[in-house]
Structures are given as structure tokens and as C-alpha cells.
Amino acid sequence: MAVIMRYFLALVVLLAAVQRIQAEESDYLRAIQSEAVEAKKADFGHWGWTPDQYLQWGTHSNRLIPVYTFGTQGAGKGIDLTEFTGPNSTYRSAESITELYGRLPQSTLNPNAEYCDQTDIARIQSAALTAGKKHIFLVVFDGMDWITTRAASIYKEGAVSYDAGRGTGLHFQDYTANGTTQFGFMVTSPYVDEAQVNVDQQTAVSDLNSALGGYWFERGGDAPWIAPSDPTYLIGKKTEAGPRQAYTDSASSATSMTAGIKTFNAAINVDHSGERVRTIAHTAQELGYRIGVVTSVPISHATPAATYAHNVSRNDYQDLTNDLLGLPSVSHPKNPLEGVDVLIGAGYGVSRDLDSGQGQNFVPGNAYLAEGSIEKIDVTKGGRYVVSTRQEGKDGAAQLQNAAKHAAAEGHRLFGFYGAEAAHLPYRTADGQYNPTQGRKKTAESYSTADLEENATLAEMTQSALTVLEADGKPFWMLVEAGDVDWANHDNNIDNSIGAVISGDEAVQVITQWVEDNSSWDETVMIVTADHGHFLVLERPELLLPPASGTTSR
């Protein structure tokens, strides 16, 4: 009997091993990621500047960032992307650079610059408002630089089809918008890296002894596909060759794209001295536009917050949410902002007892939505929003869309609050499943059936937002953020990163289909871009393709 039992146990172990191998072969990118973390190196590429260190760098960089525009070519003064690139680039003029940064950063003047600046994204939107464009979309893939985009396109297209330029394979790369699409790239460096802030008093003083903004093209490269002559320059390291220049965070960058200014990292729509500034959404709202904000990460994370809120710190989440929902906040205690018409995102179920970053008015409980706020905004309790939150046993997409239809029919606003334990929507991995493996943190998120069924996807959230925004025929401005691209890249996880890009691309498809069905590119402008880069390097991009032999070759 003992012999039989040993054989039985050996058979069980063998079957488990076979199943594991079969799973890895069917999800080869997951296997590549798992092995790269275990070995701490990978033949296909790495995060950082040293090829044999897969997990070397886990945060942002000063890389040039791709910009894809739609409805812009030939669309009029200040809208066409070429008004900000090539001969019209800010970076060809010492005077323009000085106006932008408050000084002339070292080696930033480039007489041959082809790139624009992130503040030009705000200028295009402003010009679109002036021209009377009815629908303006800003789609931000948080942390998606040109290399990250290329990795996702290789996987989706099943081919290594380009090594420079716009690229192909993803919807936003291939879609032409009736011949009105354009491509460029931009600088994202902030005014300054750090500032001394007081969240309770809402004051800020930029620290001019910290790294200052600028872009030294001779070291960083004058196009995003050109390898930098000094890779460590892109991560803000000071060397004998020159000064350290700051890379941006999401708050400063989003402020640049929505308010048109350079500021310090962590600032939400305040300038380098802490003074509040207006955003495109504020101006649009005053002109009668409806405002929509959709994100795959927490509702008041840096990018969604920067569409509308004011704060010296991106970490003051509850106050930022209050601004978005038109409730009193530390920045607007007596005269709250009007609030956005649609706010949909994650952060549901994330609780904290203490949070020093949120100041003295922090309310224990949900980190992003203060206790009692839902009751204040709920239309059934006298508020202005139809509220849809994750509910046990309920189909998240269906529930959200039903709430959107109700809001549209009754002329109400919409607030959707979803997410999983990690504060964002579940990662869609590259193969379309939701089965992440480990990354830099050496842990892998796992999702229950409920996590998947009770949440909507970013594309479904985008569709629900459009249901409300289009209801009364008014013009609207809308942000859609694929924020989990950034979270995946911070974790050095190629499987999650590619999946998150594809998830965002599906949301872009929802927008382009809506425009084709309900509007036109004569009255619509869409900008698809990112707020900053990371440091993924592809050494052998062909290894992101499925192995022809059925085994994973790396």
C-alpha cells in the first residue's frame, strides 16, 4: 500500500508539473515575466540602463513622450499639431523656453527640435474650445512612453513591424480619423522637482535647490526611439557632464496638459508658488460644456484630479475628490467648485485609519472618498448624482450602464465607484485574462470571480460616461485615463503593462466608434498621449512574439 501511495503522489506531482508547463506555453508572456523576475534578467529587455538587471529601475524617466492627435490636421489655428512641432517648437526659441521654465535650462535650446512640450496639449484643447469644437477628448495612458507602446503593439500585431515613428498595431496607431490624425512627441520635464508644502494651509514654496526642469537633447535623445547617449541622465542623475534635470510625476504633468503651465512635482493645478490656476475643464464648463472624468485607478489619483481639482499635494485624496464632486474642500471650503458631470473610477474598498498626507481634516475610512460624501451627492437624498458603487453579486458593467441610462433620462450627473483590493481595476494581462504574475514587488495580484464580475472595464466605464454626456446634446470635454499602465511599469511587469495598454486601447475604440456613430471629426478633437515615461528597454523585441515551436524561447 505504501508503494502504491508513493506512486500516486508522484503521479500527482507530475500532472501538476505538466499543467504548469502547459499553462506557461499557452500564456508565454506571463512565463517570460515570471522567469525574468526569478533570474533578475531577461533576453528580451529590462527596466533600467544595465542589460543584465531586469528590475533595476522602478519609477519615471525624462523620456520624450508620443502624442497622437485626431481631428487636428487642418483644423484651424492652434489646433493643428504642426503649430507646435518642428520649426514651431518651443525648444527652438530661447525666449519661449525661458517663458516656460522661468529660466533657460542648460542645453535645452535645440535649433533642430522636432518635439513640442506637454503644455502644448493644453493649448490645443484651448484652441479647440475657441473654435467651437463640440467634443474634446484627452486620453492619458499613464506612464506609456514610446517603448511601452511598441511592446504592446508587437504583442497585439504579432510582428516587429517598426523601429521608429508612429508605429502600427494598436487602434490609436492605425486609426486615421478620416485623414485628420497626426503624430509627434513631447517634453514632460516639470518646473522643479520638489516644494515645501503645507496641506492644511494650502501653501507651497518651490525648492530651487532640488532638480530643475529642462531637456538636454544631446544626452536624452532628440526622438523617443533614439537611444540616449547618457541613459542615467533620463533618471535625473547628476554627472560630470552636466546638471541633474528633473523628470515629472503624474500630478505636475497632468497639470501641464490641463492648465498649460509648468509646476513642481505633486502639484494639482497650482503653479510653482502655490497659486491656483484654471484648467481647460473650468473654462469649458463656463462655456456650457459638460465635464466627464473616467479612470482605471482611484477617482482622485493625480491625473483625474488634475482635470479639475486644486491642491498643493496630490496625496490629499479626499479633498481632491470633494473638488471633483462639487463639495467643500480644503482648497474651496466656503465656495465649492461646481463639480464634474461624470466621475467614474476605482478606489472602492480601500480603507485607512490614518493618513498624514491628507492633512488634519482626513476622515478615517475610505482613502479616496470621505465618509458621508456619497450621502451628500446622492440624488435620492437631494444631491445631483446618480450613484453606482460596486455591489456584491451584481454585474458591474450592467449596473453602471443602468445608472448611466437613469442619469441621462432624468438629467442627473453620474458617480461610479469601483475597484479591487489594490485600488485599481483588475489588471487585464496581455492575453486578455486577469492572471498577473509577480513583478518588482515579488508578489502577484489575484482576483476572485467577484472582482471580475462586479467591476466594469475601462472601456465599459467610457461607454457609460458617454451615455450621460451625450444625453442633452450639449458639448462636452472628457478625460479617460488608463492609469494602470503606470502601476504595471512601476512593478516592472511586462505582462501587466502590455495588458493595460491594450485595455486603454479598447477604451479609445469606444470613443472613435462613438464619434463615427454620433458626431464627426470636423467637430471633435481627441488627443491620446501619456504623462511621462518609465525605463523599459527592448534589447530583442522579437522575443515578445509567441514561440513558433510551441515552447517559450528567450
UniProtKB/TrEMBL annotation:
It comes from Thalassoglobus neptunius. Pfam families: Alk_phosphatase. Mg(2+) binds at H301, T303, E481. Transmembrane segments: none annotated. This is Alkaline phosphatase 3. Its EC number is 3.1.3.1. Its cofactor is Zn(2+); Mg(2+). One of its GO terms (molecular function) is metal ion binding. The active site is at S250 (phosphoserine intermediate). SMART domains: alkPPc. Binds 2 Zn(2+) ions. Binds 1 Mg(2+) ion. The keyword Hydrolase applies. Residues 1-23 form the signal peptide. Zn(2+) binds at D486, H490, D531, H532. Keywords: Hydrolase, Magnesium, Metal-binding, Phosphoprotein, Signal, Zinc.
